[in-house]
Structures are given as structure tokens and as C-alpha cells.
Amino acid sequence: MTAAEDYTALAAALADPLTDGDAEAKLATLKRLREALEGIGQNVAGVEAFWGAIIKPLLRLFEVLPPQLQAGPVHIARHAALELLGKIHASTAVQPYGSSIMAAIMPLLETDNQENAVVALRIVEMLHKSRRTRKVDPAGGEDPYKLDAYVEPYIKFVQKVFEGIQETYSSYFMDPSTAADADQAPVKTDYTRAIKSFQLGSETPMLVMTLLGQYSAIVQQHVVALVPPMIAALSLPGPPAPVPARLAGVVAELKQAQVKICVFMTYLLRVLPTVVMNHRAAMTDALVHLLRTAPDILSVRKELLTTIRSSLQQSSVRDYYHQKVNELLQEEILLGMSPTSCAELRPLGLSMLAELIHHVRMKLSFPQLVEITHKFAGVIHDTDLPMTVQCTGVRLLLNLAEVLMNRCDGGKADPADQETYRGLLNVVLTTLACKLQAVSRHTLATIAGAAEDRVERVKRREAIMNLDKEREANDDDKAGPAAAADDGAGPSVGDAPNAILPQRPRQLLHGHRTNGKETELLHVRNVAHTLIMGFKSLLYTLSSFGNTHQRAAPGQPPGRTFGLRDDEISLALDIVTHVLPCMHLFSGRMPDGGDNYETLADMFTVLQEPRDAMELLTIKLPDIFDAILDNPRLLATTHRLADHRHNSAGQHLMLSDVSRHFTTVLAVHLADHRLELLNDTSSQGAKLVNRLFDQIFQVMKKYPQTDGILLPIFTRLTRRLLELAASSPSPTGHLKLLLDLFAPLQNGRFAEIHTACSTGTLLPDIISNLSSLIKTTEKQLDKDLAVEIMLTLPSRLAELLPYLPRVMPALVLALGGKPELVALGIRTLDYWIDSLNPEYLEPAMGEVTPDLMANLWSHLQPHPYSFGSKVLQLLGKLGARNRRWLKAPQQLPYKDNTEHGLRVVLTLQPATAFLVPLDKCLALAQDSLRRPDPGGKNSYYRQNGLQFLQSCLAAMMNVRAPADCQLPGGSADKLAASLFPGTTRSWYVDVQADPSMPQHGVKTKLQMQAERSLVKSLVTSITEAGADAALADTAVPFACSVARHMAMLVFLG
């Protein structure tokens, strides 16, 4: 007998009429069928054949076995049949029998007991879901399931269930006979009918929500009828406490059914708001009542809290929760009495409560605001709560602060009420300041932990990728022999229905991007961001709190209160102290990291009274400076503070008062405490001082009327810089800062600073110090800086005129210096020539006239030389005065010996001979060796200069190769090989003596002295060259050979 015939024989026994003892036989048949189905497994054809053989007899079995309300074999067999039918969801065989199954199941829902109805309800749900996921004709053909006709009967069944809840409630809790013997006898001995079951009341609404998405038009026509019985079911209060032990399960089922009904009504409120619009008050009352009376079952209370939170998304319901705030603030109502329930549901409950309070905050009374503030002050400091809940608490406190500000806006509140509100604002500010302190205490540890986890994750990813590559290599190695052995016939691994291919852990690479520490860092960063934004809002609120006219006694002028009070200033100082370490949280790669630094600056710019900002910044500026050294991104904060502007009515953009005070305070702090850092220009402190001063100077250039920023400290800053430049071994940093200080003062905008510079002894002291520095410094960079400062003094020409002769030497040096200084010198001289009468200018030039004119004439060069034409114009403006200097004695180079140390006799054809002195060439070569060359750019010239010096020294020492020398070649070759071992003959040419060349006589005493002096100089230069690593390979062997030669001469006498 085939398997199909066996299924048919077993199924035929199911449809036989019921007789005594047949229930057990049918139950045994059902067990055999279930075992057969499990034996088929995943074989699709076998499953379809199985259901095709038994589906009709199985459905007729529900007619043979009547519904039972008593426990017995019939009930067990009927329940087993429903469970077997529920397994059809795993097969495509449900499609041909969908309508038949639904026709057999729907009557069971009303006539059967609760236990079977729950299974039947699962089958109905499965049929509708199968229709939704397996549509065979999307173009609009006939529905093969034909389930539309059963939607309306199901909704009517749900209506009966909701109506039956009231009847069942009365039978349990309002029947005197039941209540009289409540503690002795059990409530029921039979099964409950489905339409009177609390459990069905919790199961049926979920399917209605599913049907509303599939059969929207049909459900919308009949769902209105469900609302009255649902409202009636929600209004059932339940038995008073304490509940008898035998009724505890019934009460739990009732409350769970009411919770599900509330979930369904919340869903209707979102998709069909008109259906339940008139029952919003009843729904909110029921939700809060359920929180008060629901059993401490975790799943029930969690779903209840989620439902309330979901209902808050609808603006039409929020107002009804206003009267429930006092109840929800009690944790025993919100979370229940069970410790487990409280611990698990506390984050969800507090989040829901915060959201509710946020929506009704404008209607809260002051006592409620006080209670909420104190409650959430504890929430944000509770380390057992997730950081997301703590952040929600912070945002709620900030929203409450906004409420307090709005109630006092416009002077509507009495002065006493304003003081009360301000006190509560101080409580909020203190609470958030303490939270910031807690965050800052663990900031560095949190960042370090996240960095370690990030490194560990990268290592783990690399290990997994390496393992993946090894597996691929092993697969390739195995695939070769397998491919050679395979003829192409036979099933592959992928053809097997149950084949399991090797899984590689790629999900570990792309799954969880962050782990515990990194997630914690993100949450801490979110809390810090919220706190920084909140402090900006709170400080603005407190600073502008009470900025309206106060009520004064008759005859007294109205008073005004602005700014922060002393205790609030202290809190603000603590906030700044703790917020600086927290800024490390935003130092990484963050899209919005820069906004937090600007927000930190806005904590000061929003203050309505500039004196408050000045007091805060004066005290905390040292801490801010030190924090910038650790976190350079804080420079964005100082830039925002220095460059914060506001629009003045009828005027251009003006610098705000806070920025004006900040730049002044910053300049004072830097001038008094940080200038010593400039001694080491490469240090981070020196770079930071320069950048902060640069921010100040940029503000002065950008905005008009900014004299007052530097005016109070200009004299002190200038003298301090000159003093440090004179005493420091490296004055470069101080001179650069002094130059940057004078640069923006060149235009006529800063008249007050010009006056301060010209008043007293500041200007002559500047000129004297810089002149001394120019004469004494050996570093060319410092000399150039001093010269440039001398030509950019912040003084008018009329006030500079008495000191012009002392400035002229700097002008001469500028015209003989690098191109930038030449341009500055030409521009300065041109301005003086155009602005001064010759009677004043010519005496000022005085002693430096020859040097000045010589430098000017040296720039008279043709195009493309950039300064030639401009210098020619200057000489033309000077007229005849540009030639008077020629009458004065010229400075000539002094030489103590008129003879040359080394001369070369050059003979040109036919026989013209003349002497060429090489002293200047030797001096040039020596200078190239002594000049430092850190980058090695002049190595070629230095090598050739060294070889030139060596050749000249060999010639002056009259060194010849010995006659018995075994070296190959002529005399020049032997000399070169002995002095330069290992070198080639590329640097000299062997020239034979010409007999016709004139011979010179005996050298004079002066010539001998000149040669002796030059030999000493050459020996010294060649010896010094051996200390240079780049020249040592050539210089050291030659120096050793010369030393050997000298030693031999001394030994021979």
C-alpha cells in the first residue's frame, strides 16, 4: 500500500460517526497522522499529497466531534485535530482549501471552548497571512483563497467577545453566590466558552489590526460597532484589593484583555481617528487606571507603558493626560510594586513620563514643576539608568526652564513669583552643573576605553579577514584535485536540497559597528552635547530674567535687574571648569563637533550683561589657555568669542560688547602671563600665544572703532616685548609678535593708539631698543625683524620727525636686505619724500646719505628686476640731491698688505702674459665652506670650493712627487695620487711648462708675508672642512696628507 493510500485509509476513519469509545480511536488516528507528517519532513510533494488526502476528512471530524465544555476524550481529540490542522501553514496546500478551512473554523470560534478557540484563532490568522504573502494574480484576478466573505463574521465574533467580557466579569465579581464562597470552592469546573473568555478578549484585537491592513474597506464599515463594547470593557474596574488567590489568574486575564483593547484603540486613533475621537477621555482614564490596578506582570506593564507612549504621538490625546500627571509621578503606580518590574521597566517608564510631561509642560502648576524637577534631578544622576534616559531627563529639565521663563516674560508675574521661579531655575542649573561634573570626571577614561575597543575591533577584523583568505586558499587547493576527478556528471553540492555550504564570518565585519565602550562614548557625548546646549539656554534665561521694570513704591523710580547674581556666577564658573575637559569628547572626526565649540562660546555671548562675561572670562582664562594646549580645537571657541558681532540699527556690522571685552581680557592675560613662552618659538605655548594674538589683530582689522581693545595695555605690552627681546637669547618670537602688533596700526583708524605711542617716552624707547638690537644681534633674522619694526612704527610722520635720523640706519639696512625689506624701504622712503619738505628730509639723512644712495643706486637694474623703475623714480624725486653724496670721501676697503697671497700667470696667444690674483676667489670658497647648509642645497658648490682650496694649497706648498715614487703617470698625476688617494683625474689638467714663458725674480718680503698668511688661512679652512660630514670623505685624507708633509719638513729641519 502506498503512502497516499495509507493517508486515505487513516483519514476515512476520522469521518465515521462517533460511537462509544471512538473518541480514543480517533485520537490515536490523529497521533499516527501527525507522526506521518513529521516523517515527511521538508518534502514538498509529500506534504501536498498528505494534505490532499486528509484535509476533507479532517474538516468533517469537527462535525463528528461536538464542542465540549467538559474535559474528556472528545475534547482531547478535537484539540488534537485543531493542532494538526494548524501545521498546514508550512505547505502550499493551504491555497486550494483556504475557503473550506475557514468555513469549518469560523463556527468553532463561537461554539467551542476557550482552549480550542485560541488554536482556531491561530489558524484563521495563518490563513489571512498566507493570502497576503502568496498572491498568485497581482493583476487583479480571482482570489484563490476567497476569504473576504469571512471578514465581517469575524468582526461580529470579536464584538460578541467584547460584550461577553462584561457578562463574564459580572459572573466572577458581582455574583453574590460566587463571592460568598470565594475562598473555599473553585470558580469553575468546566471550560469557558470562547465568547465569554477574557483570554480571547486579548487575542482577537491583534487580528483585527491585521485585517484592517488587508481588507481596509470591509473592516472600516464594521469596526465602528466594536467601539462601544470596548469602552464598556475598559470601564470595568476589577475587584477591590486584596484579590483572593483563586481569582488572581482571572484578574490577570481581565487586565491583559483590557491592555490589548487599549493597544487596539490606540492603533485606531492613528489610522481611523474619527472612529474613537469621542472616546479619548475614556481611553486615557482606562490606561492610567490599568497602570494602577494591573498585576505586576512584566510583559503586561511593559505593553501598557508602550501603549501610553504610542498614544502620546497623537496631539489630540495629549491634553487628556494633564490631569493624570500627579498619579504618574508616583513610581508605585507607574512601575508597579514588584522589585523586578520596577528594575526592568524603570527606563521605559521614565522615558514615557518625560515625554508626557514635555507635551503638557505649559499647563503644569508650580508645585508640579517643583516635584518634576526634583524627581528628574535624581534621574539624571542615577548611574543604574541608561545614558539615553539620563539625556532625556536633561532635556526635560531644560524644557521646564523654558516654561519658567515664559511665565515671567513681559512682567506678568509678581516679583515674589519671579523670585520663586528664579530659585527653581537655580535648582535646575545646579543639577545640570553637577551632572556635567560627573561626565567630565570620566571623560578621559571613556575616550581611552573606546579607543582600546576600536583597536581591538580592528585587530579582530584583520584576523577574520586573514582567516577568510586562508579558507579561500584551502578551497582553491581542494578544488583542483576534485575538478580533475570529476567527469562533469553527478549532482553537485548545491543541488542537494539540504546542502549546507560553509559559512564565513563576514557578518562580523559588517554587523555591529560599535561595541560597549564605543556605544558608551556615543551616549556620553550626546549627554555632554545636550548639557552644553542647555547651559547656553539657561545662562541666557537667568541673565535676562527680570529684565522688565520692577514694581516700585510711589515716588521711587522703577528699578531694573540684569545679569547673573553672585551664586549664579559661582555656578557658571564651575560649569566652565568642568566643560573644558568634556570638549575632548568632540575632538575626533565628528560632523557636528565644531558646533559644540561654537556653542561653548555662545554660553558667554548670550549673557545680557557684559560685566558677567568679563568676570567669568577674567577668572577662567588661564584654564581656557591650558585647555587649548591639550585640545587645540578650542581655538574655535576663542575665535567665536573674539569675532561675535551684532547688527546695529542703521549701521554696519559691529563687534558685540562681549567680544570687545573678551579680546581686551585676552590681550591683558597674554601680555601679563604668557609672553615668556615666546622664548622658544617651536613650543606649543608660543604657537598658541601667536594664534591668539592673531585672532585679536584680525578683529581689529575687520571692525571699526576697535582702538579700545589694545589701548589699555598697548604701552605695557610694547615695553614688555622690548624688555624680553633685549634679555632673551632668542628674541625672534618677541620681535615677530611686536611686528604683528604694529602691522594693523598702519592705517589712520587707530588714532588713540598712535597718540599713546607718541606720548611720553614710548616712541624713543622703541627706537633706542631696536637700534641697539640691530647693532648687537648676530642672527640675520632678528636683525631683519628689528629693521622691519623700525619702518612700521605706529606713529604719525609729524610725531616721528624728531627721531627720523635714528630711523635712517634701519632704512639703509632695509634697502640692502632681502626683497621684502627692499620693497618696504622703497615704500617708506617714497612716503617720506612725498610728505616731508627737503629741508627736513635732507638733515635727517645726514650721515647715512652715502650708504643710502649706494644702496639705491645698486637697484638701478633693467627689467625684469622689480625695483629698478621705482628706485629711478625716487632718485628723480630727490633731484640733484641724489648726486651730492659723490663729493664726499668714499669708503674704500682696507688691506694691511698690498701684495696678493696667490697669483696665476695667464698667457694668451701669441705671448701676452698677465697676473690674476686669486685672493678674492679663495675668500669666496672659504665663505661657502663656513656658511651652514642644513638642506644640502649647496653641496655641489661646497665640494668644488674644497677642491679649489686643496689645489691652491698644494701649489703654494710647492709639493712635487718624489723621483722614486712608484705611482704611474707624470708629476701632476703622482702629486694628485699622493695627495688625493682614491680620486680621479677629473679636476685638474696637466700643463707642460712653456720655455718662452717669462720667469719672475725673487719674491719680496711683503709677498712672502702675504703667502704665509694665506697658507695659514687655507690650512685652517681645510682642517675645519673635515668636521663637516658631507665633506669629510674628501677633506680628511687631504688634511692628513698635509699634516704628514708638515711633520716631515719639521723632522728634516
Please give a structural write-up.
The protein is mainly alpha-helical and 1053 residues long. It is built from 48 helices and 4 strands. The strands form 2 sheets. Strands 1-2 form a two-stranded antiparallel ribbon. A two-stranded antiparallel sheet has the order 3-4. α11 (227-234) packs across α12 and α12 (248-271) packs parallel to α15. The longest helix is centred in the middle third of the chain and has 43 residues, at 443-485. The model is unreliable at 136-141, 179-189, 483-514, 548-561 and 985-993 (pLDDT under 50).
Short description:
The chain is mainly α and 1053 residues long. It is built from 48 helices and 4 strands. A two-stranded antiparallel sheet has the order 1-2. It has a two-stranded antiparallel sheet with strand order 3-4.
Question: Keywords, please?
Answer:
1053 residues; mainly alpha; two-stranded antiparallel sheet; two-stranded antiparallel ribbon; 48 helices; 4 strands; 66% helix; elongated
